[in-house]
Amino acid sequence: MATNTILQYLDNAAGGSDSSSSNRRTTEVFIAGETLAVGDCVALDLAQSADADKGLIIVKGDPGTATDTCVVGVVLRSAEPTGTLTAGSRVEVVTRGLVSANVDGATVAGSRLIVGATAGRLAVAADINEGGAATVPQRPIVAIAAEADTANFARVYVLANF
Protein backbone atom coordinates (compact mmCIF):
# COMPACT_ATOMS: atom_id res chain seq x y z
CA MET A 1 0.00 0.00 0.00
CA ALA A 2 2.16 2.82 -1.27
CA THR A 3 1.61 6.40 -0.24
CA ASN A 4 1.76 9.28 -2.67
CA THR A 5 5.00 11.05 -3.43
CA ILE A 6 3.37 14.22 -4.73
CA LEU A 7 4.43 17.57 -3.30
CA GLN A 8 2.24 18.48 -0.35
CA TYR A 9 0.75 21.93 0.19
CA LEU A 10 3.52 24.22 1.48
CA ASP A 11 1.58 26.99 3.24
CA ASN A 12 0.83 26.53 6.94
CA ALA A 13 -2.00 28.21 8.84
CA ALA A 14 0.09 31.34 9.47
CA GLY A 15 0.54 31.87 5.74
CA GLY A 16 4.14 30.76 5.53
CA SER A 17 5.86 27.43 5.26
CA ASP A 18 7.86 25.40 7.74
CA SER A 19 9.47 21.98 8.11
CA SER A 20 6.17 20.29 9.02
CA SER A 21 4.43 21.58 5.89
CA SER A 22 6.02 19.05 3.55
CA ASN A 23 8.42 16.55 5.03
CA ARG A 24 7.95 14.18 2.05
CA ARG A 25 7.98 11.07 4.26
CA THR A 26 6.87 7.87 2.51
CA THR A 27 5.41 4.93 4.41
CA GLU A 28 4.33 1.39 3.55
CA VAL A 29 2.27 -1.10 5.53
CA PHE A 30 3.82 -4.54 6.06
CA ILE A 31 3.01 -7.60 8.21
CA ALA A 32 5.24 -8.25 11.24
CA GLY A 33 6.95 -11.64 11.19
CA GLU A 34 7.98 -11.21 14.84
CA THR A 35 7.46 -8.76 17.70
CA LEU A 36 8.79 -5.34 16.70
CA ALA A 37 9.18 -1.98 18.44
CA VAL A 38 8.74 1.59 17.22
CA GLY A 39 12.09 2.74 15.82
CA ASP A 40 13.31 -0.72 14.81
CA CYS A 41 15.19 -1.09 11.55
CA VAL A 42 13.23 -3.71 9.60
CA ALA A 43 14.03 -5.96 6.66
CA LEU A 44 12.06 -8.14 4.28
CA ASP A 45 11.84 -11.70 5.61
CA LEU A 46 13.49 -13.48 2.69
CA ALA A 47 13.22 -16.78 4.57
CA GLN A 48 9.48 -16.95 3.78
CA SER A 49 8.60 -19.86 1.49
CA ALA A 50 6.11 -17.97 -0.71
CA ASP A 51 7.63 -15.28 -2.92
CA ALA A 52 4.68 -12.94 -2.27
CA ASP A 53 5.36 -13.17 1.48
CA LYS A 54 9.03 -12.26 0.97
CA GLY A 55 7.87 -8.77 -0.02
CA LEU A 56 5.16 -8.49 2.62
CA ILE A 57 6.49 -9.87 5.90
CA ILE A 58 9.15 -7.95 7.82
CA VAL A 59 11.52 -8.79 10.66
CA LYS A 60 14.20 -6.87 12.55
CA GLY A 61 17.19 -6.15 10.33
CA ASP A 62 19.97 -8.51 11.42
CA PRO A 63 23.28 -9.17 9.61
CA GLY A 64 23.64 -12.33 11.70
CA THR A 65 20.83 -13.92 9.67
CA ALA A 66 21.49 -13.87 5.92
CA THR A 67 17.78 -13.55 5.05
CA ASP A 68 17.21 -10.56 7.39
CA THR A 69 19.54 -8.01 5.77
CA CYS A 70 17.32 -6.52 3.03
CA VAL A 71 16.36 -3.39 5.01
CA VAL A 72 13.26 -1.49 3.86
CA GLY A 73 12.95 1.13 6.59
CA VAL A 74 12.12 1.99 10.20
CA VAL A 75 8.97 1.14 12.18
CA LEU A 76 6.82 4.25 12.63
CA ARG A 77 3.81 2.71 14.41
CA SER A 78 1.32 -0.10 14.48
CA ALA A 79 -1.38 0.01 11.81
CA GLU A 80 -3.67 -2.06 14.03
CA PRO A 81 -6.56 -0.47 16.00
CA THR A 82 -5.13 -2.14 19.13
CA GLY A 83 -1.65 -0.70 18.55
CA THR A 84 0.03 -4.12 18.64
CA LEU A 85 3.39 -4.79 17.02
CA THR A 86 3.44 -8.57 17.45
CA ALA A 87 3.78 -11.27 14.77
CA GLY A 88 0.91 -11.00 12.30
CA SER A 89 0.21 -7.31 13.04
CA ARG A 90 0.08 -4.67 10.32
CA VAL A 91 2.99 -2.25 10.75
CA GLU A 92 3.54 1.19 9.21
CA VAL A 93 7.17 1.56 8.11
CA VAL A 94 8.97 4.72 6.96
CA THR A 95 10.61 3.76 3.67
CA ARG A 96 11.87 7.30 2.96
CA GLY A 97 12.09 10.40 5.15
CA LEU A 98 12.60 11.53 8.74
CA VAL A 99 11.83 9.22 11.66
CA SER A 100 13.14 8.45 15.15
CA ALA A 101 15.19 5.23 14.95
CA ASN A 102 16.97 2.75 17.20
CA VAL A 103 20.68 3.53 16.63
CA ASP A 104 24.09 2.69 18.08
CA GLY A 105 25.45 4.96 20.80
CA ALA A 106 28.25 6.20 18.52
CA THR A 107 25.74 7.95 16.23
CA VAL A 108 26.30 11.66 15.56
CA ALA A 109 24.70 14.04 13.08
CA GLY A 110 25.79 13.05 9.60
CA SER A 111 26.58 9.42 10.46
CA ARG A 112 25.97 7.00 7.60
CA LEU A 113 23.88 4.18 9.06
CA ILE A 114 23.70 0.50 8.10
CA VAL A 115 21.94 -2.54 9.58
CA GLY A 116 23.79 -3.15 12.85
CA ALA A 117 25.00 -6.18 14.78
CA THR A 118 22.11 -5.77 17.25
CA ALA A 119 18.87 -6.91 15.57
CA GLY A 120 16.65 -3.92 14.76
CA ARG A 121 19.35 -1.32 15.43
CA LEU A 122 21.14 0.87 12.90
CA ALA A 123 24.92 1.15 13.26
CA VAL A 124 27.43 3.70 12.06
CA ALA A 125 29.04 2.56 8.80
CA ALA A 126 32.78 2.10 9.18
CA ASP A 127 35.12 4.00 6.92
CA ILE A 128 37.05 1.81 4.54
CA ASN A 129 40.78 1.55 5.21
CA GLU A 130 42.34 1.59 1.77
CA GLY A 131 45.61 0.26 3.17
CA GLY A 132 44.01 -3.16 3.56
CA ALA A 133 44.67 -3.35 7.31
CA ALA A 134 41.03 -4.03 8.19
CA THR A 135 38.12 -5.99 6.78
CA VAL A 136 35.01 -3.81 6.67
CA PRO A 137 31.65 -5.47 5.95
CA GLN A 138 29.98 -3.68 3.07
CA ARG A 139 26.27 -3.15 3.67
CA PRO A 140 23.95 -0.64 1.99
CA ILE A 141 23.61 2.76 3.66
CA VAL A 142 20.06 2.75 5.08
CA ALA A 143 19.87 6.22 6.63
CA ILE A 144 21.75 9.39 7.51
CA ALA A 145 21.58 10.61 11.12
CA ALA A 146 20.08 14.08 11.56
CA GLU A 147 21.29 14.31 15.17
CA ALA A 148 23.36 12.52 17.80
CA ASP A 149 21.70 9.66 19.65
CA THR A 150 20.02 10.04 23.01
CA ALA A 151 19.67 6.70 24.80
CA ASN A 152 20.12 4.86 21.46
CA PHE A 153 17.47 6.86 19.57
CA ALA A 154 18.02 9.61 17.00
CA ARG A 155 16.15 11.31 14.16
CA VAL A 156 17.39 9.85 10.91
CA TYR A 157 16.57 10.33 7.26
CA VAL A 158 15.78 6.92 5.77
CA LEU A 159 17.07 6.66 2.21
CA ALA A 160 14.74 5.13 -0.37
CA ASN A 161 15.96 1.54 -0.75
CA PHE A 162 12.56 -0.03 -1.30
Low-confidence parts lasting 5 or more residues at pLDDT below 50?
none
**Mean of all residue-level pLDDT scores:** 88
**Secondary-structure content class:** mainly beta
> Span from first to last CA?
13 Å
Q: What brief labels describe this structure?
A:
five-stranded mixed barrel; mainly beta; globular; 162 residues
Describe the SSE topology:
Layout lengths: L25 E7 L8 E4 L6 H4 L2 E4 L10 E8 L11 E13 L9 E4 L6 E3 L18 E3 L7 E6 L4
Parallel strand pairs: 1-3
Antiparallel strand pairs: 1-5, 2-3, 2-4, 4-5, 5-9, 6-7, 6-8, 8-9
Give a written overview of the molecule.
- This protein is mainly beta and 162 residues long.
- It is 2% helix and 32% strand.
- The protein contains 1 helix and 9 strands, in the order E-E-H-E-E-E-E-E-E-E.
- The protein has one helix at 51-54, and strands at residues 26-32, 41-44, 57-60, 71-78, 90-102, 112-115, 122-124, 143-145, 153-158.
- Strands 1-3-2-4-5 form a 5-stranded mixed beta barrel.
What's this entry about, in short?
The protein is an all-beta fold. The chain is built from 1 helix and 9 strands.
